[in-house]
Structures are given as structure tokens and as C-alpha cells.
Design brief:
44% helix, three-stranded antiparallel sheet, 3 helices, alpha+beta, 204 residues
Length: 204
């Protein structure tokens, strides 16, 4: 398997591992509670569901632990070989196998790939700007009751258009004419946190 295909595959698994682990853990706890508390639920299908959910949770956690171990090992390897102080606490893009990690002291950025065990080093000047972005989505939502329907006791529902923000991502513009924007989809709180981290790393 080529490095690109391997990276894409591990990235997809890493993206699925977090929600799969979370939902399977909830399902495992719920089915265990049923088995303990509800006698009528003590069936073979409930037990099989509990075993399946527990197995998915276990393998999801093990997979994420493996990704974390490989990421930290690669960062330590770079630090040793290049005499740097890359901070493994700030890996932008993890749990994807491709991520960025930073050395504030020596003003270096490492672009890492644990699938191929390769990396590229860049100066801080490689990072041109950063920000977080989102998509505005308009929705119609129920806002209450309106006028009474003539001849009845019923009232018509009323709706109003509301705007929601979704699809948050952290975006970096870099000095690469072939790939000038690096986009990292994440939750709103994480995007804002990384924005603050970049301010501290590059301007602190």
C-alpha cells in the first residue's frame, strides 16, 4: 500500500474511532444496566449487543492509543535527530496520522506523518496566517402560536428564520504555492482554542 493510501486509510479510521468509541461505550453501559436491572432484558440478543458494543469500544480505544504512541514516538525521534524541542502536547491534526507540531524555542514547525514515519521541517516563516472559519446555515424554527383559526379554538403555528454556525475548522495559510491553505475540521471550542494557541506560539 502506498504512503498516500495508507495515510488516507488511517485518517478515516482515526476520524471514526472517537465517535465510535464514545457511542459504543454508552451502548455498552446501557446494555449492561439492562442486563443487571431488568430481568426480562436478560436475553441472548441483549448479551450479544453488550459484547459487540464493548468490543467496538475496546478496539477504538486501542487504536487511538496506538496512534498517540506513534505520534509521540515520531516527535521524540525528530527532537533527538534534529536537536529540537517540539512540543508533543500541541499536535495540530491529531488523531490523523498527518499533523503539525511546533518548537517555539527554535521557531521550527514539523510536518509529520506517522503512517510513513516521515517528516518535513520548516521555519516559523512558513506559517503566514491563521484563523478559524465556519458556515452559516439558515433554518426555519417554531417560534410560538399565531392567530386563531376562524371558527375553531386552534391557533396557527408561527416560524422564524434563524441563522446557525456549523462546520467549524481551523485554517492556516502557508508559504506553499501548490497547497497554500491547510484546513483542520474540528469543534468550535477546539478551533478557538487553536487560534489562541497559535497566537501564544508564534507571537508570545
Amino acid at each position: 500500500m502506498s504512503g498516500l493510501a495508507r495515510t488516507a486509510g488511517v485518517t478515516a479510521l482515526g476520524t471514526l474511532a472517537v465517535p465510535a468509541g464514545l457511542f459504543s461505550a454508552i451502548a455498552s453501559i446501557g446494555s449492561l444496566a439492562l442486563l443487571i436491572l431488568v430481568s426480562d432484558a436478560r436475553t441472548g440478543s441483549t448479551f450479544a449487543f453488550f459484547i459487540t458494543a464493548t468490543a467496538i469500544c475496546f478496539f477504538s480505544i486501542r487504536f487511538l492509543q496506538t496512534l498517540a504512541r506513534k505520534a509521540r514516538a515520531l516527535v521524540e525521534k525528530i527532537n533527538t535527530q534534529e536537536n529540537l524541542s517540539l512540543n508533543p502536547q500541541n499536535m495540530l491534526g491529531y488523531p490523523s496520522p498527518a499533523f503539525l507540531v511546533f518548537d517555539k524555542k527554535n521557531r521550527k514547525v514539523a510536518i509529520c506523518n506517522t503512517s510513513t514515519d516521515e517528516y518535513l521541517l520548516r521555519d516559523f516563516s512558513y506559517i503566514l496566517s491563521w484563523n478559524y472559519e465556519w458556515t452559516n446555515v439558515n433554518k426555519m424554527e417554531f417560534s410560538g402560536l399565531g392567530n386563531r383559526v376562524p371558527g375553531t379554538t386552534m391557533q396557527t403555528p408561527t416560524f422564524e428564520r434563524t441563522e446557525h454556525q456549523q462546520g467549524f475548522c481551523f485554517v492556516i495559510e502557508v508559504a506553499d504555492e501548490n497547497n497554500p491553505r491547510l484546513t483542520f475540521p474540528m469543534a468550535e471550542t477546539r478551533a478557538k482554542e487553536w487560534f489562541s494557541k497559535f497566537n501564544a506560539i508564534f507571537n508570545g
